[in-house]
C-alpha cells in the first residue's frame, strides 16, 4: 500500500507544542484565564446585538457596574462552586479516619451555584436559565438578566459562542480515502489481546479479508492512535531504583508496541498521541512520545509522534481530537446523557478543555490558551471512551461537524474508519481471534453532505 503523499497533509499541532522548557515555579495560572476571557469576550460582544436586539445599543456591562433592576448582559468566566469537589485536606483527614473513603464518580450537587467573574469582580447567578448541571468552571459565556435586591444576578438567558467558523469542504472528492481512528490499545495490560491487535494490523495492511475489504484497506491514508497505547506495570513505578530484570519488564510493552507500529508504518502514515497511561507528561497539552521509544517505527518517515490534543488536515478536511482526558474531566463536574453531549458543548464553548487548569492538569501558558477552538473542525474525535458513538451537529452559519467517540480497543476490539468523502464512519471490529468484519454506521449523514454539494 502506498503512503499518503504530502499534498494531503497539514499538521496543526504547532500551538500545542511547548516553544521552550520553562520552570513552573515563576509562572501563574491566572494569565491563561485572562487570555481566554479577552479572546472569548470579543466574540461574545459581536453576537449580543443579534442575540438580544431589543436591548439598548450598548447592553454589555461589567460586574462592578451592575444596577439593581436594570436589564443588561454581562460577559465573564463562569466559576461553579461545588460542595462535593475534592479537597486535598479533607481527603487527608478522611484517609486517617477509621471509616472507608467513598469517592463518587460525579461531584455535582443540586445546590451548586454559578458565579460569573470578570476583571472588576464576581456575582452569583440565580434563576433557572443558567443550569449548573451543564456548565463547568472555566467556560466564558454571556448572561442576560438583571441584579436583584439581594445582590445576585437573575439570569434570564445564557449566550454561548457557538461553533467557530469552518472552512468549506472542497468539492470533487471522488475517491474514498479512509482515516482509521483507534484508542486504548493498552499493550501490556491483562485486558490486551496480542492476537486481536495483530488481526487489526493485518486487516489494515490488507493481509486479511476478501477483495472488497482489501480494496478498502488500500484506500487508508492515515491511522491515528488516540492515547493509552501501553500499560506499564504499576508495581514497578514506585520511585525506587529498578533491577535489570525489572527494567526489561518495564520496557517490554513498549517493545511489543513498536513491533506492531513498525508493521503499520511500512504500509501507511501513522500518528500516535500520548494518553493518560502513556510514558508522557501528565499536564495538557501532552507532548509527543519520544521517538527513542519506537526505534523500529521511527525509522520510517510515515511515523509521527504527535501531541494531545492533535489537529491535522487531509485534503482540506480538518480533524481535531484528544485522548479523552478533557471529556472524562467534564463528566466529573457536569452532567450529560452521553459522551457526544460533552463533545458538542466543548465546540459550542469554543474550548477543548474548559476545566483546565482548575481540575485538569495544564501547562501554565502566559501568552496564549492553546485549547481555544478558533477554526471549527469537520471531524472531532475523542479516544478511550466507554462506547462507540457518532453524531453530526450543525452550526448557525452552516457548520457541520462529525463527532466520534472512540472506545478502548483492548476492551471492545473496535476501531473506526472515517471515509473523507462523506465523513460517515464505519466501525471495524475484531470478533474473537478468528475474524474481522465491517459494519456501516450512520451513512445517512454522507447522503446529506452529497445533497448539500
What does this structure look like?
- Residues 422-453 are annotated as: Disordered.
- The chain has 453 residues and is of the alpha/beta class.
- It has 2 domains: 52-89 and 105-159, OB fold (Dihydrolipoamide Acetyltransferase, E2P); 178-448, Purple Acid Phosphatase, chain A, domain 2.
- The chain is built from 9 helices and 19 strands.
- It is globular.
- Mean pLDDT is 83; it is low at 1-9 and 431-453.
Characterize the main sheet.
7 strands, mixed
Q: Specify the CATH class of the largest domain.
A: Alpha Beta
Beta-strand residue fraction = 15-25%
Beginning-to-end CA distance, first to last residue: 30 Å
Instruction: Please list the strands of the largest sheet in the order they lie side by side.
Output: 11-10-9-8-17-18-19
- Counting DSSP E segments of at least 2 residues, the number of strands comes to 19
What is the 3D shape?
globular
The CATH topology of the largest domain is given as Purple Acid Phosphatase, chain A, domain 2
CATH architecture of the largest domain: 4-Layer Sandwich
Low-pLDDT sequence parts: 1-9, 431-453
Helical fraction: 10-25%
Q: What's the overall average pLDDT, rounded?
A: 83
Structural class: alpha/beta
- Give me the Rg, rounded: 24 Å
Q: Helix-strand pattern, N to C?
A: EHEEHEEEEEHHEHEEEEHHEEEHEEEH
How many helices? The count is 9
How many domains? The number is: 2
Amino acid at each position: 500500500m502506498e503512503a499518503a503523499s504530502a499534498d494531503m497533509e497539514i499538521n496543526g499541532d504547532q500551538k500545542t507544542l511547548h516553544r521552550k522548557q520553562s520552570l513552573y515555579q515563576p509562572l501563574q495560572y491566572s494569565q491563561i484565564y485572562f487570555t481566554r476571557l479577552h479572546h472569548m469576550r470579543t466574540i461574545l460582544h459581536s453576537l449580543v446585538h443579534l442575540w438580544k436586539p431589543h436591548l439598548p445599543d450598548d447592553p454589555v456591562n461589567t460586574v462592578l457596574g451592575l444596577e439593581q433592576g436594570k436589564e443588561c448582559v454581562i460577559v465573564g468566566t463562569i466559576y461553579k462552586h461545588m460542595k462535593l469537589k475534592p479537597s486535598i485536606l479533607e481527603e487527608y483527614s478522611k484517609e486517617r479516619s477509621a471509616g472507608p473513603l467513598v469517592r463518587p464518580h460525579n461531584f455535582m450537587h443540586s445546590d451548586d451555584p454559578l458565579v460569573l467573574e470578570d476583571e472588576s469582580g464576581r456575582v452569583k447567578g440565580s434563576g433557572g436559565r443558567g443550569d449548573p448541571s451543564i456548565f463547568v468552571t472555566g467556560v466564558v459565556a454571556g448572561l442576560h438578566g438583571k441584579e436583584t435586591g439581594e445582590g445576585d444576578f437573575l439570569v434570564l438567558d445564557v449566550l454561548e459562542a457557538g461553533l467557530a467558523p469552518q472552512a468549506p469542504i472542497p468539492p470533487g472528492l471522488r475517491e474514498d480515502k479512509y482515516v482509521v481512528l483507534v484508542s486504548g490499545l493498552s499493550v501490556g495490560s491483562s485486558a490486551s489481546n496480542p492476537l486481536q491487535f495483530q488481526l487489526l494490523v493485518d486487516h489494515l495492511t490488507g493481509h486479511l479479508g476478501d477483495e472488497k475489504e482489501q480494496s478498502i484497506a488500500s484506500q487508508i491514508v492515515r491511522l491515528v492512535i488516540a492515547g493509552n497505547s501501553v500499560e506499564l506495570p504499576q508495581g514497578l513505578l514506585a520511585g525506587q531504583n529498578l533491577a535489570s530484570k525489572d527494567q526489561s519488564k518495564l520496557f517490554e510493552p513498549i517493545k511489543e508496541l513498536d513491533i506492531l507500529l513498525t508493521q503499520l508504518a511500512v504500509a501507511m502514515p501513522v500518528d500516535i498521541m500520548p494518553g493518560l497511561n502513556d510514558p508522557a507528561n501528565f499536564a495538557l497539552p501532552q507532548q509527543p512520545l519520544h521517538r527513542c521509544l519506537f526505534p523500529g517505527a521511527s525509522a520510517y518517515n510515515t511515523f509521527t509522534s504527535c501531541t494531545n490534543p492533535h489537529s491535522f488536515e487531509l485534503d482540506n478536511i480538518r480533524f481535531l481530537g484528544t485522548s479523552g482526558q478533557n471529556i472524562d474531566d467534564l463528566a466529573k463536574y457536569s452532567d450529560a446523557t452521553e459522551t457526544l453531549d460533552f463533545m458538542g458543548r466543548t465546540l459550542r464553548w469554543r474550548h477543548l478543555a474548559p476545566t483546565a487548569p482548575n481540575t485538569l492538569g495544564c501547562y501554565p501558558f502566559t501568552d496564549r490558551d492553546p485549547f481555544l477552538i478558533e477554526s471549527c473542525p469537520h471531524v472531532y474525535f475523542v479516544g478511550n471512551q466507554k462506547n462507540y458513538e457518532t453524531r453530526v451537529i450543525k452550526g448557525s452559519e452552516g457548520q457541520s461537524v462529525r463527532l466520534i467517540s472512540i472506545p478502548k480497543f483492548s476492551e471492545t476490539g473496535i476501531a473506526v474508519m472515517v471515509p473523507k468523502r462523506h465523513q460517515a464512519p464505519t466501525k471495524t471490529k475484531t470478533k474473537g481471534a478468528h475474524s474481522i468484519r465491517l459494519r456501516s454506521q450512520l451513512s445517512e449523514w454522507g447522503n446529506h453532505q452529497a445533497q448539500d454539494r
